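Hello forum,

I keep getting stuck at the same step: I have a sequence, I want structure tokens, and every attempt I make locally crashes halfway through. Rather than fight my setup again tonight, could one of you with a working pipeline run this one for me? It's a single chain of 466 residues.
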Amino acid sequence: MDIKFCGAAREVTGSAHLITLDSGYKILLDCGLYQGNEEELESFNKNWYFDPKEIDVVVLSHAHIDHSGRLPFLVKSGFNGNIYSTHATRSLCSIMLLDSAKIQQYDAEYKNRQAEQRGEGQHFKPLYETKHVNDTMKLFRSMEYDRWFRIHPEVEVLYRDAGHILGSASVTLRIGGEKLVGFTGDIGRPDRPILRDPIPMPEVDYLICESTYGDKDHISKPAEKKLFLDIVQETCVDRGGKLIIPAFSVGRTQDIVYIFDQLFNEGVLPQIPIYVDSPLAVNATQVYGSHPECYDNELNEYLMIDDDPFGFNTLKYVRSVEYSKSLNDKKEPCVIISAAGMANAGRVQHHIANNIENERNTILMVGYASPSTPGGMLINGVDKLKLFGKWLQVNAQVKRIDALSAHGDRTEMMDFLKNQKSKLKSLFLVHGEYDTQQAWKEYLHENGFDRVEIPALQDSFSLYSE
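Reply #2:
Ran it on my machine without issues. Output:
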């Protein structure tokens, strides 16, 4: 049995890991879109490190685009097998992949207009279109948590709740009835809003593990809630400015809205308008409402006093482009939550471009952003930012709350992995910046994990029973 790392290798996005059994049966764990601007990975999304027609099955950990976003391109390229996921992941993918297709079509049209204005003959095409998403959704097979299911005479699969986003799961493969191969997917955080805590995986022989925050610890939950309130007070009340929050439409946006809902019910949230400006976030919030099987006990108890944890009097969900544009003309203080979380696409780019030069405003980053994206550049303290072909001075305050990340920190990930020490033969680190992975590897060594690998893109390993 072999494993080949075809994405998210010494990188945070583009998750794709290929397992080939001795019989030739090929299992693809995730099929994510690369999201970033590194020149060496510019062509990643358009190329495969395997033949899509030879893939027998996809086992999907969760719906985030960096894990699911190339599935329609895989289908377009000839894949016709089953795609397994949890029920909630399937629901989210149905809206997220359509949104991804529409963004790509819009971007291609925009680039073609720009090329035409320059007198160039370039013709940009989207990676896939909405019709390919429709074909992809027909291949989904959704399964429950905590029940083994068979995908091949030699292979059974177990999903356990990863506590990362709605429907997220760790993946355990039982091969030949005895050998166990695990994939953490993205490890969530205990005691987070909305979702249940991550459930540790069964002991496995070989494990593929994420590394996003392998070099740091997050702040505590109470401090995070107070930080939100303090930033709203300082920006919108004391300075009379706007608070712009780039947030992924799925997971992060719902967490933030839930926190604001709690602050509103406590009577401490300033009476200012709060806008969720993302059609995808609106749809995703509706999906969240239809999957209460993923809720934690805290949210179930909260529903006894508030039957809508994602809505309150000063909150407005924005769908139309016209209303979104009108937010930039408003002079009064407000909070705008808009996608994308790395500020590398979507409506939030327009809000940043229109507000970044005003010193009264604040841009609040609430999670990981690749260093090459506008969000990453803001986190790293750039003085100027180029958006829509124009250099803009960064006069607005830039703040960051890492604690809201849906990824566990190094201590939380170690707690998730602590049951793996006795049986594990090899641990492969993926989904992390290389410097972070090296720190995470050292931390793992200090805590009793000896055989830790950091594979590069296209690295292959043979896995044998010992």
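The mean pLDDT is 93. If your local run keeps crashing, start a new thread with the error log.
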